[in-house]
Amino acid sequence: MVIWLIGLAGAGKSSIGQALAAQLRSRGVAAVLLDGDRFRDVVDDGLGHSTGERRINGMRMCRMSQFLEEQGVAVVACVLSNFPEQQEWNRQHLTRYLEVFIDVPMHVLEERDQKQLYSGARLGTIKNVVGIDIPFVRPPSPDLVLTNDGAISAQVDPILHALREREWLP
Q1: From the CB of residue 37, how many other CB atoms can be counted at a distance below 10 Å?
Q2: DSSP 8-state code for residue 68
Q3: How far apart are CA 144 and CA 51, in angstroms?
Q4: Which of 64, 81, 99, 103 pairs with 145 at a CA distance of 20 to 30 A?
Q5: Domains of the chain, residue spans
Q6: Least confident of 96-100, 149-153, 164-168
């Protein structure tokens, strides 16, 4: 199974993903966290953050998720996922795919701004920031939409519930 967590920078994808992967492991599920930022570090081929480079990295994550799922590993993918065609690819190529959109208003993201991406983009010192100078394409048909107000357990529980409803959890 692949749980694809979509959201803008600062939405909480990584924190939610870490907590979700831990919950899955505690239930005996072989689970791996595939975080977009960390994935870039591992691949380390100089890929930047332009729209085209983001498209390449996103497709790599789709294919890596498929590769791991085929081996019986549950994947929790934390990815900005700004490309509906990749979400559609996932639906066509992954056996068990749950798409979760972490919907956080831009003003909240700009208040959090842990990496100073949004403030840097507003000042013009950082380029290619999705939501500022690259439009964010909201996922057209997520299986679940969550609003992250900071309570991580409140975000993980609905995902676990959705997995149980699909009978994907032991």
Answers
A1: 13
A2: H
A3: 25
A4: 64
A5: 2-165
A6: 149-153
Return d(Cα 72, Cα 141) in angstroms, integer. 26
Asked if the model's pLDDT at residue 159 lies above 80, the reply is yes
Instruction: Give tens-digit pLDDT for 53-80.
Output: 888 889 999 999 999 999 999 999 999 8
- 3-class DSSP assignment, residue 3: strand
Return d(Cα 77, Cα 32) in angstroms, integer: 8
Angle ∠(64,68,95) on CA atoms, nearest 5: 95
Alpha helices for 74-151 (secondary structure H): 84-93, 106-112, 117-123
Q: Which of 81, 119, 141, 153 is catalytic?
A: 81
- Per the prediction, the chain carries an average pLDDT of 92
CA 103 to CA 109: how far, in whole Å? 10
Nearest to 39 by CA among 17, 68, 60: 60
Whole-angstrom distance, CA of residue 115 vs CA of residue 107: 15
Beta pairing, strands 74-79 & 31-35: parallel
151, exposed or middle or buried, with CB in 10 Å at 0-12, 13-18, 19+?
A: exposed
Judge whether 15 counts as a catalytic residue.
Answer: no
